[in-house]
Amino acid sequence: MKTNSLVGWLICLTGFIYVLVSFSGIWPLASVDVGKPKDIYIEKARAVLDAKDIDHDGYVPFVSLAVRESVLDTVQAEQSPEAAAKYASEPNGLVRYYVKFKKKGTPKTLSVVLHPDGGVIGFGQSDDPDLQQGGFSEIEFRELARNLIRDDFGVDVGELEETKFDSQSKDGVIHYRIDYQRPFKNSPSLNEVFAVMTGGKQITALGRRVELNQKAKLELKKQKGPEEAVSQLGFLLMGAGIVVAYIIFLFQLREGEIELVPALKVAVVMFLMVLASSLLDSNSRYQSWDPVWPIATKWIKLISQQFMLALWALVLGWALLAAGTRAPGGGKEKMATFWEYVRLRWRAPGVAMASIRGGAIGFAAGAIAILLVKFFENMSGGEVGLQPRAFYLSMLDRQWPAFAIVLFFFPIAVVEEAGYRLFAAMWIKHRTKSIALAIIIPAIVFGMIHTSLGFLPPEKPWWGRAVLMMVIGLIWGWAFFRFDFLTVVLSHFMADVVIFSWPLLMSEFTPSKLMAGFGISVALWPALLWVVWRIVSPKKVPAASA
Predict the structure, then answer these.
(1) CB half-sphere exposure, 43, CA atoms < 13 A
(2) Which of 343, 383, 432, 523 is most buried as measured by Cβ atoms within 10 A of its Cβ?
């Protein structure tokens, strides 16, 4: 092994160890376990409905996770990350599960809001079409509200400020709503709100939540402006690149210089992977179902919605892979191991080596990311936000989330790397004769687009995310020109899977840990299988070269 290769592997090994030790420093988790099976929350929600004497026979449950990110960030800024983590562990609505119920043939819906540890945050039910006319008097309603808040949340209404009262009559049924609030943990920016609603003689909602006051909401909007502008500019540049890619794709198609079938086959598989991952989203299934419709209508609507969302993987993937493979200056050579990979020729030494390199480079990039975040924290007062948040929640909401993560992020890795590296970088190199520009320009756009993704560190300064992701883009750009397309795809894929599997890995629920480990290992399967084949049939499997 050459000296420079040995040094590279030592750097990657050091990065692997450093990531294992320090990863929680840049992706700190709130003090809650979001890796528990959803059946636990469904059972608890049914018990709450039973205690409230609400009939739920025949109702189908759906579970979704929600986090008040802006509130956690405010607590962290005003007090400390430890305080934010502590408050998230309390049943105040900062982190919550919605368990919603629908029943075929009836428009009435039920809901229970739970803390991940099982504490009740609220419950609700939509108006019953058969509600009796009339309802509570105002005095009766206020007394009911006081008792509910005291009995369910242990809070004396006398300690709260009334901020809203509303009464109205609909079709002879009297509806009431009352809101109370108090400062949350002595914060100047946050209020804890308690709400009670009734329709007729029926309690339609009881809940608590923590929210920003109006001044803090306005300030947050102002802060979000610059990062949104940078992110949208990045998307504009990416859109221009996609248009150019399609123009080149069409010219190559006209000239007969492009191989459509291999790229189309991969694009179809990616489309099916994204579609399957989307169909595992129970929240989407809930939102698409109007229970008064026939059940077939629900599935037709759901599949059509998710079909359109997944179509980008087919359209973009096909054009970028086909055009990128024919990119001047070696596109076909850069793609050789990728085509072997998708044809499952994993005994090929090039595929196995790309798998090993992809994982190693991913961990080295992770170590550099951690160092950058720590630099921002020490030099510019940077902060990292508590997780999970933003797109994390979409993945954790899905049935079998570890599998959904793999299904979703492999196409993401292929399409993004085909766009940034295979197509853009190769054409920039061809036009400018500069590998440096071919690495730097796509990396800048890559960083800009990721600026507004709140689950990425650091939370502050906002431009730190752009710098961080630009550096990651530089690493993957270097790896693309130094090695091949498959190496950066598997590195990107593993990075995404590690990030989104992190809450599952940290769960106390063993099956979640095992499934997360399974998902993370997928990028390394070619290397693992190649090792096994080398042991079983050493004479038939050629050695891999670094």
Answers:
(1) 6
(2) 523
